[in-house]
Design a protein that fits this description.
single chain; alpha/beta; Helicase, Ruva Protein, domain 3; 2 domains; seven-stranded parallel sheet; 11 helices; 13% strand; elongated
């Protein structure tokens, strides 16, 4: 299965959402991570201009959202349901951190539908809703202030789903370290320059050069960066030579 298709098997279910802006913000959070299936159970106001505004362009998610009257309807066809819960409950379901729960969801989403279930903004999931989940997810928060916005919770779980689906590449170009022979030429150039300008004692260069090697090893220099550094060294040598001529 294609990785993006895997995410199509993940539905985000919002139960009895009271503020339409939170629905729009949740749609935005989903779209940024490649999720598209939004299911709403008895939202207080939807459709609504505030939802459109808060979606910041993710109106296609809102337009395709499924509005249901019951939890049974919203979860129909799902083989695994993970419910978001910040409260400690006297229940038997396994409670997992997001990354562990998402690993289970991803495994099932390879072939079948799964759901992330979010309760109301004020009180979260009801006991009846929590009982319908195979696992509960608790986001580790500051114990002194664990109030997490609904859309923020959707964003976090959607992000974890994207990573678990193998779509976590940020698109940055891969580092291309320079060949070792180019790095060695840089150090030879650097040592000769530091000796010329009197910064390095040519009789005892080893200790300082080892430290410089360690410094640049951490940087994993690319060829263009080596070219820049050697250009600086060349100009330094020329400047020192010209200055030395003038003083003579």
């Amino acid at each position: 299965m294609d990785r993006a298709d895997l995410l199509n098997n993940v539905r985000v279910v919002l139960s009895h959402t009271s503020h339409p802006g939170n629905i729009g913000a949740a749609a935005r959070a989903m779209k940024t991570m490649g999720l598209s299936r939004l299911v709403l159970i008895n939202p207080k106001q939807f459709p609504d201009p505030q939802a459109d505004a808060m979606s910041a362009g993710a109106t296609d998610i809102l337009e395709q959202a499924q509005v249901c009257a019951t939890l049974d309807e919203a979860l129909q066809g799902c083989v695994l349901v993970a419910g978001m819960s910040a409260r400690v409950r006297d229940i038997s379901q396994e409670v997992l951190p997001p990354r562990e729960a998402v690993a289970l969801l991803t495994e099932q989403a390879m072939t079948q539908s799964v759901a992330l279930l979010f309760g109301t903004e004020m009180s979260g999931l009801t006991n009846e809703e929590a009982a319908r989940c195979q696992v509960l997810v608790r986001i580790p928060c500051n114990p002194d202030y664990s109030s997490l916005n609904l859309a923020a919770a959707v964003q976090l779980l959607s992000y974890e789903m994207r990573l678990a689906a193998g779509l976590g590449d940020c698109g940055a170009p891969a580092l291309q370290p320079a060949p070792v022979e180019q790095v060695e030429r840089l150090f030879e150039h650097m040592e000769s320059t530091l000796v010329e300008i009197g910064f390095l004692n040519h009789k005892h260069p080893t200790k300082l050069m080892h430290k410089l090697r360690r410094l640049y090893a951490r940087a994993r220099l690319e060829q263009e960066e080596i070219n820049i550094l050697r250009g600086i060294l060349t100009v330094t040598q020329e400047y020192h030579a010209n200055k030395h001529k003038v003083t003579k």
